[in-house]
Write a structure and sequence with these properties.
One of its GO terms (molecular function) is ADP binding. It is a single chain. Among the domains are: 2-145, no CATH class; 151-221; 224-322, Arc Repressor Mutant, subunit A, CATH 1.10.10; 606-623 and 631-690, no CATH class. It is 26% helix and 16% strand. The chain has 18 helices and 26 strands. The chain has a 14-stranded parallel sheet with strand order 9-10-11-12-13-14-15-16-18-20-21-23-25-26, covered by helices on one side. It is globular, with a radius of gyration of 28 Å.
Amino acid sequence: MDKIYAKIQNLSMHRPTEFSRQCRSRDTKSTMPIPPQPAAQEPDLASFSDDVHAMITRLLTDDKRFRVIPIMGMEGIGKTTLAKLIFNHKAVVDHFPFAVWTSDGCRLHLRVNGTSRYIKWSRMILTTCDMRLPSKLERKSDPHPLRLRTDEESWALFTHALKVSIPPELLKLKEEIVKRCGGLPLLIVKFAEALSHKDATIEEWSTALQQCHHDQQQLWSNTLCNIHKDLSLYMRRCLFHFTLFPQDFDIPARRLIRLWVAEDLVQPEGENEAPEDVAERCLNLFIAQGMIQVTKKKFNGKVKAIRLPDTLRQYWLSKAQQATFLGRRYKFRSYSCDYNTTTSLTPFYEDVLSFLSFDTRKESKPGEEVGNFLHRCVSRGCFLVLLVLDLENVFRPKLPEAVGELTQLRYLGLRSTFLEIIPSSLSKLQNVQTLDMKHTSISTLPNSIWKLQKLRHLYLSESYRSKLMLRHGTNSLTTLQTLCGLFIDEETLVRDCLDRLLDIKKLGLTMSSKQEAVSLSLQAVADWISKLNQLHSLRLKSIDKSNQPWDLELKPLVGHVNLSCIYLLGRLRNPSIISQFPYSLIDLTLSGSGLAEDPMQSLDKLPNLRSLKLFAKSYLGKNMLCSLGGFPQLRALKLWKLEQLEEWNVDKGALQDLRDLEIRFCRSLKMLPVELLHRTLLKIEVIPAQ
């Protein structure tokens, strides 16, 4: 790397000279031979579209200084593929009159009109497996670490590289293929090439999958030791934590981050830094270094779910065992146990700090078994230092009243359990930070929940109208950052109560009040939201007693510079509010808004918007226009049940980044915009009205 830097210095030291116009070409010949680009088949842009967009944005910046953009990552992760996509991209070809591809860091100069002259290069892309840059180069660089591909990207790359159509009987191997390749492009392409003949049988596919696993081990063996050596202690512990989840398990990033915080695996580095931010930064670092695979991403760019590829899981599991992370005192982290054991519980569960269950049988038995097991453990003096009780996806676990004895508990995960009641002893859990009851059947919460002074994340069941009855003038729950699924009616105290919760970053509310009280309730909520300066995500629904969209009030949100996601269901009392959304907005959903004027004329000016969904009755007009230059980053557009929409026009140069278009039940829409019909990277799905 130091040698490359020295050669880069040589390139940037020489002053630019005048060149005749006919020489301003990417085909200008060098005085030394330039190795050709790789002769492999054309790369698949769809599998690297996010990376291409990010790289081109950096390349085409107005910054005139010399910049190096290293594409970083392990062997086989797609560095050369991405570099080739960038080099041949039309925007790059049009912007840079001179461009050279070389396989080493040699000094480049061009022969123009028979004279050897140096060019002062403005941008340089280099690929490297080394995640550490020399300090001198680091000051001039803007690194782009390559991550492992998601399942969707992996399958797109596989089908692109496969030279034959996939027989229907082999499609059932799709899930296994993307998992076994672990998101590594080199393995995906190699696997596809091995099967690129018409007569491949399911036995050959299975054999190739086994070979793929072997190849993955070989590729990773070259980098894992160095990665492990360079990691800090707390980062190793976070990596070891992945091994608690079953093989090939898709782990929600939300769940993982909350667990790391609850178990003290991460610590804030400054007074104003939240542990959740440290955990998210750690997770992103693992992704950047290719140590874990993103399986699902949100439109706001954040990670939704991750997986530890099997080869990596085996490696980190062995390291965790060597480091006693899963040793005698720490066997609590094992995710399997015998609920009905007759042996003494004390030696095994006395010092347990975390209990996670992955029993997802959809019957009453697992819920009864885990409930009895918890009761026996607590009654015999076990679990008394428990920090985490995570029963996500366990069907209706029967929580005993004794759960209130777990006074050290910080994380109680009941998501997707369809639990109907929770013990009244919940108020004793004074150290709980995360209480997750999303997708349960709980409608009534203990009034004493307001006593949980350390609660940071509260997820309630939106569909069961969970209400939180706080006391007037209360100063409780002031550390709350997440409040999702809360139901508000005329009995809910908002002013001088809920509106004292000012640290909220993620808010989800459903409002339904009697007609005579609706205005006061809407106004109080609007005033509260306007004060939430740290808000990142807002989900707001206003419905009448028949669950139909009702009036919705909102104040300008331009000053909410961190707000990236908005979901609004209800008739907007002030329709012009859509022109006062913050530029930080990435994901927007409107439903039942009742807009009479074309919303595209306001929304197309949001520079970072990537996902837009206009659902039933959000727009009541007949015509819609996407103007030139509008929606520069929009990737996904959904138009559902816009029954009055007859004509939709798209100017040339609008929606340039659109990749997914979904139109459902727009019964009056006559035809699709011609401008969109010939875009090769655009996936269009149209479901006509019945």
